[in-house]
Amino acid sequence: DLMSKLQGRNLVGLFVALTLAAGSASATNGYYTTGTGTKSKAQAGAGTANPQEVMSLATNPANIAFVPDSIDAGLSIFSPMRDYETSPSLANGNGGAFTIGPNRIDSENEFFPIPFVGMNKALSDVDYLAAAFYARGGMNTKWVGGTATFDPDGPGPAPVTTFDGTYGGGTAGVDLMQAFLNLTYARKLSDQFSLGASAIIALQRFEARGVSTFAPYTETFARSGGTVMPKNLSGNGHDMSYGYGASIGLQWNPVDMFSFAAAYTTKMSMGEFGDYADLFAEEGGFDMPATATIGIAVKPNDRLALMFDWQEIWYSDVGAVGNPIQNLFQCPTAGQGGTDFESCLGGNRGAGFGWEDMSVYKFGASYQLDDTWTLRGGYSFADQPIPNDQMTFNILAPAVMEDHFTVGFTKKQAGGNEWNLSFMYAPEQTLKGPNNFDPTQTVEESMHQFELEVSYSWKR
């Protein structure tokens, strides 16, 4: 029957293939999604303390002790619209400046399918197992056109030249996809309290294009005295890395009207992107940041639930993401008198995107109209992670979103199975600051986005 087919390996294989084919996009909170699971997304990611679906294990593994046995499968269509604009420059490539444009360009690739599947099972009255496969986070940009003006030989008498592409290396952009296999165990210590833990296996796929002009700022080039060009910087196609991490959590429902949850996910220790060892810090290192979540839920009556979650994401603890671009000026070939090879691209302190940690605040509500329909809504906000003195590299990853508005519903069928839908809108957010390689020029990055997700839940 359908249930046995869903439990087979063919479904898992299909979702792995779909995720690898889908790619990813600049997501919502930095490069993390608002939530995992359609019900959670309809509530702007809130609901950690009010478990309602298998996919809640991605945030809090203790939740599965309060979710009926089921299989959830779904697909979201994520649509980020991004553009950047650079102002006219007074330097225009002279005196060692690296001038971008002036351009105004919209990123291509605006629709991304992102699938997920999860299954949970009660082993006894107190023991619970679950497994899920999902994508969460990533970024994708493709800047076609534009120009960059600079002196390819560095400051000196040679004239400046204008080259095609955002950074003068042709079409620029990145493609980062992240996917997770989550294996979860939870145990009820009482009817009101559970603890849970997850083992998480992760994979990443990455590609960078159009950044070859930064070759002189790599550790490979600097240590060779300018005689060896880096081979692992740009345009090497997709590279894969694999890694692991874990999460722990608790769920406490002391009274019918109130519940509390807390969870922590470790930094995901990932293998290096060898094909981009001259781009990312620590010779291609790209770990995933740790996160922590605390949630509460209040239920004034049997039909209404009000939820609040706070989530912290430690982007600054990942060198490739958190290291500021200013580290690059300590590289001996940066023309600033630097003497630190490890501050060059690919070095242990290699320049990155300069992202700061994020605190995300999520408010959600659900209301059960009748035995068939439940309505959901939510709002989340955060300060986006990019300081306005980190503009130049972040053209590749303009994750400037702050506000998210969501709605959705659940429709229960006669046999107990459910259709779920969520819709998210994030209004335009703009960030403006100086070009780090031409302070006379301003870079402005803008983004707005939509997401529609549909899932089906088979109750067992």
Strand order of the biggest β-sheet: 1-4-5-8-9-10-11-13-14-15-16-17-18-19
For the largest beta-sheet, the strand count, sense and barrel status come to: 14 strands, antiparallel, barrel
Q: Helix tally?
A: 6
Range of helix content: under 10%
User: What is the straight-line distance between the termini?
Assistant: 13 Å
Say what oligomer this is. Answer: single chain
- Residue runs with pLDDT of under 50 for 5 or more positions: 1-9
Order of helices and strands: HHHEEEEEEEEEHEEEHEEHEEEEE
Shape: elongated
The computed structural class is mainly beta
Tell me the radius of gyration: 23 Å
Please, what is the average pLDDT?
91
Total strands: 19
Strand residue percentage: 35-45%
Structural key phrases:
460 residues; mainly beta; three-stranded antiparallel beta sheet
Can you describe what's shown?
With 460 residues, the chain is mainly beta. The protein has six helices and 19 strands. It has helices spanning 2-6, 9-22, 38-42, 219-223, 281-284, 319-322; strands spanning 70-86, 99-100, 104-106, 112-122, 127-140, 147-150, 161-164, 173-190, 193-209, 239-255, 258-265, 269-270, 291-298, 304-313, 358-368, 373-382, 403-412, 418-435, 438-459. The strands form two sheets. Strands 1-4-5-8-9-10-11-13-14-15-16-17-18-19 form a 14-stranded antiparallel β-barrel. Strands 2-6-7 form a three-stranded antiparallel beta sheet, with no helix packed on it. Strand 13 (291-298) and strand 14 form a beta hairpin. The chain starts with a helix and ends with a strand. 52% of the residues are buried.
